């Protein structure tokens, strides 16, 4: 595996403008970038940096709060909805909106965080079934992973802590999930029918809060740490290194509040580094898949790095 030297803040550039908490950055083969956005709904950033809505409907005015997004083969999007109505919805570029997953086992699906299209399977995460949190801690274990396969929706895993992004390993044998406020990444074996088993937990120090993730072509898993603004690469043997960090000077106080079970949303939302603000999402793109695109809850643009190794193409590239 290629040894990657740590990046510096000076290596960052920007693309796009006027974004509102750009989440779940997706890079398309034509050079477009897409993000969930709480002003534009789904934002599209053209290769020249021009920014505008990706669909012909005002999703925000209709009450949606898109977070995770995925591209379908026909050009439609799936969006997770962090608003009260919850669920996952299908949106066409012309603006038609229809439910994709809104009930499981006869119960409404609460606000959802992330969605991943994996061939004939679709993975959905629910960070927590209890959204009215005064404090964020390692004790909140009501997160879930849902699976849609052959038109059937089921709970693939539960009892997770603030379930965030998921990715399937390039060989298809593992599903990785970030459990943000447990400060860990968990790896599951995947059976042919989508059953998850044999969880292996990779625990980080209590100032690393894993959020977004993307695989490179060597099987390295790049992970963003929200709050502490770190970029981490996990090797296939689950050893890991920090590639970039730009944390708030008050990070020690934030970590102390977390350790006491007293971390608040105000502390999270105000966390700022010199260039990064709540780094939360990552995607590989560009003609050579060596451009690393970074979204953040406090950003108004997407940050860009150049990687010495290309990313693994996602399903919508194939």
Structure, described:
This protein has 318 residues and is mostly beta strands. It has one domain: TolB, C-terminal domain (Neuraminidase), CATH 2.120.10.30. The protein is built from two helices and 26 strands. Strand 3 and strand 4 form a beta hairpin. The radius of gyration is 18 Å and the shape is globular. 47% of the residues are buried.
Output the keywords.
318 residues; mainly beta; Neuraminidase; globular
Helix-strand layout with pairing:
Blueprint: E1 13-15, E2 23-27, E3 33-37, E4 41-45, E5 51-53, E6 66-71, E7 77-81, E8 88-91, E9 97-101, E10 103-104, E11 107-108, E12 114-118, E13 121-126, E14 143-149, E15 152-160, E16 163-168, E17 174-179, E18 184-190, E19 196-203, E20 209-215, E21 221-226, E22 230-234, E23 240-245, H1 251-259, H2 265-269, E24 279-285, E25 291-296, E26 302-306
Antiparallel strand pairs: 1-26, 2-3, 3-4, 4-5, 6-7, 7-8, 8-9, 10-11, 12-13, 13-14, 14-15, 16-17, 17-18, 18-19, 20-21, 21-22, 22-23, 24-25, 25-26
């Amino acid at each position: 595996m290629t040894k990657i030297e740590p990046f510096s803040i000076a290596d960052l550039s920007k693309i796009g403008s006027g974004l509102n908490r750009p989440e779940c950055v997706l890079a398309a083969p034509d050079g477009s970038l897409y993000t969930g956005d709480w002003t534009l709904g789904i934002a599209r950033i053209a290769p020249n940096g021009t920014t505008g809505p990706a669909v012909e409907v005002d999703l925000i005015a209709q009450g949606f709060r898109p977070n995770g997004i995925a591209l379908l083969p026909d050009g439609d999007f799936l969006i997770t909805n962090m608003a009260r109505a919850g669920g996952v919805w299908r949106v066409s570029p012309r603006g038609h909106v229809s439910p994709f997953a809104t009930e499981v086992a006869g119960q409404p699906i609460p606000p959802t965080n992330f969605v991943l299209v994996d061939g004939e399977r679709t993975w959905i995460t629910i960070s927590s079934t209890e959204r009215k949190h005064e404090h964020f801690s390692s004790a909140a274990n009501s997160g879930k992973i849902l699976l849609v396969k052959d038109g059937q929706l089921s709970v693939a895993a539960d009892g997770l802590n603030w379930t965030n992004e998921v990715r399937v390993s390039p060989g298809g044998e593992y599903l990785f999930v970030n459990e943000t406020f447990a400060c860990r990444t968990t790896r599951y074996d995947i059976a042919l029918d989508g059953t998850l088993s044999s969880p292996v937990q990779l625990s980080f120090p209590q100032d690393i809060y894993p959020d977004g993730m993307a695989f490179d072509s060597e099987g390295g898993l790049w992970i963003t740490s929200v709050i502490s603004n770190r970029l981490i690469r996990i090797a296939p043997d689950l050893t890991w290194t920090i590639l970039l960090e730009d944390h708030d000077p008050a990070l020690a106080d934030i970590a102390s509040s977390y350790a006491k079970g007293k971390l608040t949303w105000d502390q999270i939302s105000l966390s700022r580094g010199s260039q990064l603000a709540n780094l939360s999402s990552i995607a590989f793109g560009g003609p050579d898949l060596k451009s690393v695109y970074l979204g953040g809850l406090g950003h108004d643009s997407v940050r860009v790095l150049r990687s010495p190794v290309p990313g693994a193409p996602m399903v919508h590239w194939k």
